[in-house]
Amino acid sequence: MWRCVLGLAICSTLLVPVTAAANDCQPVADAYNALGKVPAYKQTVVLNGKPLAEFIVVGDRLYTKRESGWTAVDLGAGGRAATQKKVIPDAASLKGCARIGDDKVAGKDAVIYAYTPPPMEGGLDLGPQRVWIGTADGLPLRMTSEQAKTDVTLSFDNVTAPVP
């Protein structure tokens, strides 16, 4: 279960494929590529409407909050960016990309895209997803997946490593 959640956390999740121009996949791929390179971010995962997990990523170190407290995993030099690239190698690996609207996430303007990511290693199909991409910075701010019943929010401001 945690392996699946971790996979979802690293790659992130979303909804409903819609036919659109092929270039609609580029902003989605760019957002996830940028996520692999930001200095730090916090990610909260909700499953079936209930909080499931909290992650903090600082550099190539992934912190996971569980009931017993924080744990840390060293992803190795460049590990986070490499993992992100495995999940979404490029825009051509995405299907059904479409810009479906504008919204705000935590007060930040965002554009919503629908897309379907490629299956994960081992054949795990995450199904159609949606991502809210910040208009100011091009980073993913929220991700949802109807199939996986997840709603993921990300924040990038004032993120520091917790004490495990």
Quick description:
This protein is an alpha+beta fold and 164 residues long. It contains three helices and nine strands.
Describe this entry's structure for a reader.
With 164 residues, the chain is an alpha+beta fold. It has one domain (2-155): outer membrane lipoprotein receptor (LolB), chain A (Clam). Helices cover 18% and strands 41% of the residues. It has a 9-stranded antiparallel β-sheet with strand order 4-3-2-1-9-8-7-6-5. The radius of gyration is 15 Å and the shape is globular. Mean pLDDT is 86; it is low at 1-20.
Question: Which key terms come to mind for this protein?
Answer:
single chain; 164 residues; alpha+beta; outer membrane lipoprotein receptor (LolB), chain A; 9-stranded antiparallel β-sheet; 3 helices; 9 strands; disordered N terminus
CATH class: Mainly Beta
Average pLDDT works out at 86
Percent of residues in beta strands? 35-45%
N-to-C order of helices and strands: HHEEEEHEEEEE
CATH architecture: Clam
Amino-to-carboxy terminus distance? 21 Å
What is the total number of structural domains?
1
Radius of gyration: 15 Å
**Uncertain runs:** 1-20
